[in-house]
Write a structure and sequence with these properties.
Number of domains: 2
Shape: elongated
Structural class: alpha+beta
Largest sheet: 2 strands, antiparallel
Strand order of the largest sheet: 1-2
Order of helices and strands: HHHHHEEEE
Oligomer: single chain
Number of helices: 5
Distance between the termini: 58 Å
Strand content: 5-15%
Helix content: 55-70%
């Protein structure tokens, strides 16, 4: 078993490996292939099947590629294009983590988000951005 692991490590030396773009391609390819199984009676199902396998094959091509500079540039372009989407979901995840301890209110005047600790009863909240005051239950 150890011998096989060492052979694989030697094989992967100088190769690019997996990155975020490869993970995305692999997941997308598997989802498209699974989706094609629901459309198997339809000619569209065959197209989805071929596209899904093409994505999976391209993912493995990228992982085993020795042209690391080109694969790195592809990954950076992918990360640049998906930056807004990834930060949005990251922010939503952070807000959901904080909901157990804090209430998050939006200022009615300027739409600024304000974080208030839970369990303080009815309090007057003053917006730090526009100084508008409003009353909410914490």
């Amino acid at each position: 078993m150890k011998d096989m692991k060492e052979k694989f490590i030697r094989f992967m030396q100088g190769r690019y490996g997996i990155d975020q773009f490869s993970k995305f391609l692999l997941i997308l390819g598997v989802v498209v292939v699974l989706l094609s199984s629901f459309l198997s009676r339809n000619p569209v199902g065959l197209v989805f099947y071929l596209i899904g396998w093409a994505l999976v094959i391209y993912c493995y091509f990228r992982m085993f590629s020795r042209n690391t500079s080109k694969r790195y540039a592809e990954n950076q372009a992918f990360l640049a294009k998906t930056y807004k989407i990834r930060t949005f979901f990251s922010q939503q995840k952070n807000i959901w983590k904080q909901r157990r301890v804090y209430h998050i209110y939006t200022c009615p005047n300027c739409r600024q988000k304000i974080r208030i600790p839970r369990g303080k009863g009815k309090i007057e909240i003053r917006c730090p951005k526009c100084s508008t005051t409003f009353i909410k239950k914490s």
